[in-house]
């Protein structure tokens, strides 16, 4: 070997080891598997199912341990006690957003989902207040969901009981609800722009859950210098933001500051009120990104849960029959389901909760980070360290949910058949970073599913026992397999 090449290699190794030692020496982090220089523990993790790998490591290192994704340490929290202590008892200290390089490239620190500090606090506070003012959790938003449920039923009738893939039809309903809040208007289910947007959201969830994107987020240099599906995600978000920008311009042209019509109007009015603030957070960039965050989060997670829930109901026709019996008894056939019905429908409520638990949609939550140097269980976690609360460890806790691998509504019913709450049920996360739209999502899941089952019998194209409910991707999210079914009018 050329002596010069050998020298460069030696110096490079020494530099990397020095950086490694410097990076890993901060604080008194929890124990974990020994990392390799540069690549960390990546070889000890299954990129097709990282949450499962982390669960296996918890059996060796306990409920709080450290893994290295590349050169960055990440503290993993496994089990109810550890997650509750961090996200609820020490909510402020664990309220930072952890590193997710691809999302940072897309959002650039703006919006709600991937922002930190003052930006995050201002955008979250404003969004919660505005969503409440437009009826989230109130009767007015329930009216919108009920109306959209009726539109969904009419669209499903058009399938004429023929086999269909429900992906886009089920995506349209929750998307239209959030559109009515953000943009004031809803879309026709055959609108091509609408379908294109849904396809981009759907594709992004699928790609975000792929092994390649796990590599990109662990080694961010890949994002800038190599081709791959990460570029598709970036382009999809750019297209969605372009669409949002067009809507914002339309709103600017017709804005009446005394009569705000929707979320965008409220933000534009706030921008005008705050324009002389030297620490201005109400900027065009934050408007576009916040609307995109709400648009995406209010569409894809709920529609994927609906799609997965119908697959589970096809797999378990005995469960579907019990739900429909409860619908007939409590609601009947001649009025729309409403949220007041839920307290009289413990079995249906249990089925909705069990579907969310079993689906385990976002098993590792979005990454958190600590906002200051903090002592946690006799460990010292330095400010800015990424923290992963393994929500899957709560939803699959076998002491709280006997046989967690089985879809069983009994997990949420007591011996008398009454609905039974569980502190372990955290599909929307918990604490300061819990989902802004949790109330809306819960309402949509209950009203859409009960309205569908009130009006249709679900018919599988294969024997129920042959239906495979295993997700096709298990990365950022659990993506259900594609399937077809028939909606037979009752």
What order do the helices and strands come in, and which of them pair?
Elements: H1 3-24, H2 50-61, E1 64-69, E2 72-78, H3 80-89, E3 96-97, H4 101-107, H5 117-133, H6 139-157, H7 167-182, H8 192-208, H9 211-218, H10 221-225, H11 229-254, H12 263-273, H13 284-297, H14 300-315, H15 317-330, H16 346-359, E4 368-369, E5 374-376, E6 379-381, E7 386-390, H17 391-395, H18 438-455, E8 456-460, E9 473-474, E10 478-479, E11 485-489
Parallel strand pairs: 2-7
Antiparallel strand pairs: 1-2, 3-4, 4-7, 5-6, 8-11, 9-10
How would you describe this structure to a colleague?
Pfam families: p450. Belongs to the cytochrome P450 family. It is a peripheral membrane protein. The structure is a single chain. This protein has 490 residues and is an alpha+beta fold. The chain has 18 helices and eleven strands. The strands form four sheets. A five-stranded mixed sheet has the order 1-2-7-4-3. It has a two-stranded antiparallel sheet with strand order 5-6. Strands 8-11 form a two-stranded antiparallel ribbon. β9 (473-474) and β10 form a beta hairpin. The N and C termini lie far apart (78 Å).
Number of DSSP E strands:
11
Q: Helicity, in percent?
A: 40-55%
- Relative strand content: 5-15%
Rg from alpha-carbon coordinates: 24 Å
Question: Descriptors for this entry?
Answer:
18 helices, microsome, globular, two-stranded antiparallel ribbon, membrane, 5-stranded mixed β-sheet, 11 strands, 490 residues
């Amino acid at each position: 070997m050329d002596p010069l090449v050998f020298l460069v290699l030696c110096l490079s190794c020494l530099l990397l080891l020095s950086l490694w030692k410097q990076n890993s020496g901060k604080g008194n982090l929890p124990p974990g598997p020994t990392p390799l220089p540069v690549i960390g523990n990546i070889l000890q993790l299954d990129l097709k199912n990282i949450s499962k790998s982390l669960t296996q490591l918890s059996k060796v290192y306990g409920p709080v341990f450290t893994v290295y994704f590349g050169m960055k340490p990440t503290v993993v929290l496994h089990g109810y006690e550890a997650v509750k202590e961090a996200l609820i008892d020490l909510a402020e200290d664990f309220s930072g957003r952890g590193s997710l390089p691809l999302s940072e490239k897309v959002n650039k620190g703006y919006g709600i989902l991937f922002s930190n500090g003052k930006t995050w606090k201002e955008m979250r506070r404003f969004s919660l207040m505005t969503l409440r003012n437009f009826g989230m959790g109130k009767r007015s938003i329930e009216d919108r969901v009920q109306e959209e449920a009726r539109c969904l039923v009419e669209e499903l009738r058009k399938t004429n009981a023929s086999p269909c893939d429900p992906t886009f039809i089920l995506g349209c309903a929750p998307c239209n609800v959030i559109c009515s809040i953000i943009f004031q208007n809803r879309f026709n289910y055959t609108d091509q722009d609408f379908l294109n947007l849904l396809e981009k959201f759907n594709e992004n969830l699928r790609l975000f859950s792929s092994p390649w994107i796990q590599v990109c987020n662990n080694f961010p240099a890949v994002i800038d210098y190599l081709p791959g599906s990460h570029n598709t995600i970036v382009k999809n978000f750019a297209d969605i933001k372009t669409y949002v920008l067009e809507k914002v311009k339309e709103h600017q042209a017709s804005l009446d500051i005394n009569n705000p019509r929707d979320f965008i109007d409220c933000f534009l009015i706030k921008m005008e009120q705050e324009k002389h603030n030297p620490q201005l957070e109400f900027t065009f960039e934050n408007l576009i990104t916040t609307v995109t965050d709400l648009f995406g989060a209010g569409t894809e997670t709920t529609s994927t849960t609906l799609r997965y829930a119908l697959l589970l109901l096809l797999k378990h026709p005995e469960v579907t029959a019990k739900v429909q019996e409860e619908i007939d008894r409590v609601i009947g056939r001649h009025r729309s389901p409403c949220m007041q019905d839920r307290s009289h429908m413990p079995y249906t409520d249990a089925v909705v909760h069990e579907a969310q638990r079993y689906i385990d949609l976002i098993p590792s939550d979005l990454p958190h980070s600590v906002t200051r140097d903090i002592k946690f269980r006799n460990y010292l976690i330095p400010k800015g360290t990424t923290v992963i609360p393994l929500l899957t460890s709560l939803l699959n806790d076998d002491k709280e949910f006997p046989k967690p691998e089985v879809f069983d509504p009994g997990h949420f019913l007591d011996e008398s058949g009454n609905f039974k709450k569980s502190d372990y049920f955290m599909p929307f996360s918990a604490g300061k970073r819990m989902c802004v739209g949790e109330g809306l999502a819960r309402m949509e899941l209950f009203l859409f599913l009960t309205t569908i089952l009130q009006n249709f019998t679900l018919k599988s194209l294969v024997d129920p026992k042959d239906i495979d409910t295993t997700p096709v991707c298990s990365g950022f999210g659990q993506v259900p397999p594609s399937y077809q079914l028939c909606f037979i009018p009752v």
